[in-house]
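Quick log. Single chain, no ligands specified.
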Amino acid sequence: MSSLTTPLKPALPTSTWIVASWEDYLQLLAEPTLAKAKGYYHQNHMRIELLSVGHDHAAGNALIDFAVQLCSDDDNDQTRQKYAQRPNVWARP
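-> predicted structure:
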């Protein structure tokens, strides 16, 4: 049977509590696609959290850090220019 004719599994809701048995929980965590997921089980409810780690997550953080730093540097330059035009009242003669 080719991969095009295999039935697709329904998407598992993540980051929410769903009703499940302990056996279903263990079977789900054995899936290779959930190797890096965190799982929780409490009183016949389970929760699976997919962690966004790795290169994509790090690249996203680096982009945000760069944008914040770029804006901060621009603001600092404008502030320096603004105060550079004023006389220094705290300078000693």
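The beta strands are 18-19, 38-42, 45-49.
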